[in-house]
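Incident log, entry 3
Record: NAD(P)-binding domain-containing protein (247 residues)
Problem: checksum mismatch between cached and fresh output.
Input:
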Amino acid sequence: CIRYDDAAVLAQALAGADCVVHLAGILIEGKHSKYREANVDATRTVVDAAKQIGAKHIVFISVVGADPTSSNAYFRSKGEAEALVAASGLSATIIRTPILLGPGTAGASALASAARNPNAKALGGGHYKMRPLDIDDLNAAIFNACKEQAAGCASYELVGPEAIAYCDLIKKTARKINPDSTLEVGSIPIGFTKLMAGITSTLRGGGFTPTVIDVITQDEEVSHNGFAELGVTLTSLDRTIEKILEK
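Fresh output:
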């Protein structure tokens, strides 16, 4: 078990590494796991540990929408974590990602389940735009960043090759399962869901919150896709869906 609250202990686990990759973080808070500790403080500890072992480079996986001034607590925490990496003095690569799809990912499981459900529904009808990224493409970007270890701190947004509404992604996946599919995606009211999520998450001390709903339903928009700079050939969305369904 790796502890993210003790730089000395983490440094022992990382001893001998010249490049440190930090992917850990949370989207859904629990009673004992909050954005501040899991996304910001943990990143600070990783940076401190990387310095202790004399690492030459750090790769930090962030999220599209990260912003230290965001009104959304999740996006704000990821933006603050990015700032810690950028100010660390280490050479660093920051990669902001959208929803990740691939065998075994949470996004893929939810997508496949919805595509197989004749009564599929999505928040707001699923009309928010996504740029799904194949998990293997992210892995390639991380590998290349570790290999190159470019000087300074560079930030990239790495998204998939196709912009698509979530409802259309569900229907596209359904047609991969059954070419004759005429699946339509129903709507779950966002306002009411946020109201109920606010009540239940307050009572439980975490879980599915209005903050999470805002993250899920935000359009994944980027001004520039950094796949070329990261040395990645993007996997087509069709192929990514096929890989998910093959498993």
